[in-house]
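Consider a protein example.
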Amino acid sequence: MEFGMFHQFPAIPGRTQQEAFAEGFAQIDAAERWGLDAIWLAELHFDPQRSVLSAPLAIASAVGARTERIKIGIGVQVLPLCHPLRIAEEAATVDHISSGRLIFGVGRSGLPRTYEDYGVSYAESRDRFIEVLDILELAWTRAGFSYEGKYYAFKNITVAPQPLQQPYPPIRIAAASPDTYPAVGARGLPIFINARYGSFAEFAPEIRAYRQACKAAGHEGRGGVYLRVPTYLAETEERAYSEPKESLMHFYREQAQRLRDSLSRAGTRAIEGRAERLKRIENLTYDEALTGQVLVGTPDAVAAQLRSLQDELGIDGILAELNCGGLIPHEQVMTALRLLCEEVKPRFH
């Protein structure tokens, strides 16, 4: 089981952006010190009340320079908004700076507003994603490659530097819509699943489709399934229940608002079951949230939940979102991180 922390460098109410960066780096330093396997960096744009992490590769470079052991994951780079050659160069550079510790997570993002702000049609996101990913793999493996696509065309390009890891850093793909799971399985790449609401058991059919497609395409093993999940640990049940409440409920309210916003935009109403998801969370209570797709409790309780997820879904790791909603005080996040590293992780190795 791989243990990672998902981080979006949340904006801190009443405090400066400089303080938000300082606390984020302090938590990453602690994760390195306490033996966490990986740190995962979000990509979020134009939402200063939520996050200051808009440039994950820049942050990954800083993490690579200040740490020696921990894996550095991008969770995720929004490929349709990237120029493929530029991102190939920057990611390969981070791989060298980190001495080969980069894990390159990629996806399309579920925020149509960001696409509008970048001047890119969200309706093109799937085709753009595939094209950029194909170009990245070529750029990292071939000198003097050429490419002719719908959005990009290149002739005799050689990217420098080439990644330190060969043939290139591990790639993982975020899966959200049902058809994405078998498509990623056919490529033989690991997947991220973004836990939010409902029950964990709902992921079982999609994971099965992913693994069947992986096998049918002739790939060895069963692929890899990594769960990004709201997580919180405390030393007592009462604290584990009460301390993340405000932040988690803030998160669900914000999620509902983002879904409403996306449904109002052209071409997104029927995408990926958004209307159904909105209906599920609009009236969600805190107690209902805690019975769903979250890992909240004492170290014993969280370890038991993880064992169940291993048995039921065969997950290979987690991206623990220890400050889901961004309102949990720094010292409490540090405690949750320490408990995850020192009291839960050792049970799975």
Notes: The chain has a mean pLDDT of 94. Residues 2-348 form a domain with the TIM Barrel fold (CATH 3.20.20.30). The CA atoms of residues 146 and 155 lie 4 Å apart. DSSP finds 13 helices and eleven strands in the chain.
